[in-house]
Amino acid sequence: MNEDPYKPPPSRQSEEPVMMTNDDATSCKRAAVDRGYWSDPYVQHFIKSCDRKPPEINRGYFARVQAIKLLVDKFLEISSSQAQIVNLGAGFDTLFWRLQDDNRPLKAYVEVDYPAVTMRKVHYIRLRRQLLEKIAQGEDDDIRLSKCDIHSSKYHLIGVDLKDMNALSNKLSQDCRLDPQLPTLFISECVLVYMATDHCEALLKYITDTFKKAVLLNYDPVNMNDKFAEIMLENLKHRDCHFLGLEASQNLETQETRLYRCGFSNVRSWLMLQVYQSLPQSELKRIESIEFMDEHELLQQLLNHYCITVADNCETSLGFGEIRLHPVSTVAV
Considering 34, 163, 274, 312, which has the largest number of Cβ atoms within 10 A of its Cβ? Predict the structure, then answer.
């Protein structure tokens, strides 16, 4: 692939197109939930009903949501009530509320995004009792809301640019009062790929330098060196959106090498096709019966161009190295 036409500006891009990807993702999740792929009673509070999406998009998001939930659950099983979760570039994600419904123990849950995004989320949370009441941990919980931030005893929403390491560090340590000695999971879904290499690695090194039991769960594009990727990049270019972190998205090895270089000692990646095929066959049968899909090859191409990676800087004896997906099954796509 000739990469020259797809090279982004030297180190930055307009933030607005990147922020708009949150609306795209939320719309896709709402569409899949409306079709019955999985249950999420909270996504409706962040976006109105939307157009139907192609079956391959619905199934791709199903695999993504299920993998994130599976790996978060495994982390919580290991960490118990001492778990801290930081969702980077969280957008309108609803994982916190779904974990609350499942009564999962949490020490702290932090959502981070651009102030322009968190300002909208604050607005929706203020208006929706179903969202606000889950944040309060009892009647005596003091919830502090500002234009772009929310703080309670467990839940925190902070507006900060991930490239501003001083602001991020201050907010996490002072406003959210995270304990760097406790097991802390950082979730990153299609975030790192939009960051220039120097900014991305500064963020990753901050995580491994600061948090003594850090786990990273990263979902990003991969195999960005073929015709399918070329079309993807061209479509993004027309939206003035660029993968500044394209170098690390060439294959699974480049994804893992970056994380090793930034201080993670245990790293493992899977193509989303592997993730899809590892899901319980009963679930695959259920979701594949929801709607007919004619282009099976398109789904396979899509799943082969995204990956999920688990990395940690913990000692093996702590058990974080045991965070794994189920063995890959033989289900065909």
Answer: 312
Extents of the domains making up the chain: 13-135+142-321
Q: Give the pLDDT of residue 218.
A: 97
Q: Does domain 13-135+142-321 have CATH number 2.40.10.10?
A: no
DSSP lists the bridge partners of residue 108 as 84
38 in Cβ contact with 280 (< 8 Å): no
Q: Is 168 annotated as a binding residue?
A: no
Residues in the chain where the model's pLDDT stays below 70: 1-13, 139, 316-333
| pTM for the full predicted model | 0.92
Question: Minimal CA–CA distance to 32: which of 94, 74, 89?
Answer: 94
Taking the CA atoms of residue 149, residue 153, residue 154 and residue 160 in that order, the dihedral angle to the nearest 10 degrees is 20
| Residues with Cβ within 8 Å of residue 332, at least 6 apart in sequence | none
36 is in an annotated binding site: no
Contact partners, residue 96, CB within 8 Å, separation at least 6: 87, 109, 111, 134, 155
Residue 64 marked in a binding site: yes
Query: Taking Cα atoms as reference points, which of 127, 126, 131 lies closest to residue 95?
Result: 131
Beta-sheet strand order (sheet of 184-189) = 144-145, 150-151, 155-159, 108-113, 84-88, 184-189, 214-221, 306-312, 266-271
pLDDT at position 206 is 98
Q: 189: annotated binding-site residue? A: yes
- Judged on CB neighbours under 10 Å (0-12, 13-18, 19+), 9 is exposed
> Hunting for tokens 């060196």 — which residue is that?
225
Q: For residue 196, what are its two tokens?
A: 């220039």
